[in-house]
Amino acid sequence: DTEVTQTPKHLVMGMTNKKSLKCEQHMGHRAMYWYKQKAKKPPELMFVYSYEKLSINESVPSRFSPECPNSSLLNLHLHALQPEDSALYLCASSQDAPQTGATTGANVLTFGAGSRLTVL
Amino acid sequence: ELKVEQNPLFLSMQEGKNYTIYCNYSTTSDRLYWYRQDPGKSLESLFVLLSNGAVKQEGRLMASLDTKARLSTLHITAAVHDLSATYFCAVVAGGTSYGKLTFGQGTILTVHP
Questions:
Q1: For labelling alongside A19, which of A86, B41, B77, B111 has CA 20 to 30 A away?
Q2: Which of residues 62-91 of B touch A (CB under 8 A)?
């Protein structure tokens, strides 16, 4: 299995709702990521989990709450979002967190198909 | 702060022509990735370049890396319509154990007859 699976594919929510995005991989990857992508823009890193521990939080507002229940699963809990949070949310995984100078190989990120979120 | 700049941002090509997309980055890094994204879809890994002078080729695409110049190029040979997509380069910022991947702005490529 060489895929990253994201659910749901589409999500519409109101500003008072609580919802979650889910991500799963069975490639034995030890690092998992959440990226946010607005239309016609590059992906922007939100969070990195390495070995199930949060290693990077890119100053993301607390209305986004990541969770890594185990090495295969990554969730993004959403609460009290704003319309400007509407975007494509991409999950990715890699063998390990990419770093310069490492000799462990290419460590390519594999991306899921994304969850398109609309906040009304 | 690491900055990654691509040019051109928009590229309209005729089928059969050649062109090059450039990716410049601002700080030392020895790991550069190229991704392709079709409209409304996820990112597909094309190449990873790990060392100065690295060159990778797949079909009509060839990528190279010059770490001294902090420059990578993605060369398109004899373009076909199927290559129409957005192409991103991405670089790992160094200096920490868990570096983050920073993307360029993307180059929107349209190949027309």
A1: B41
A2: 88
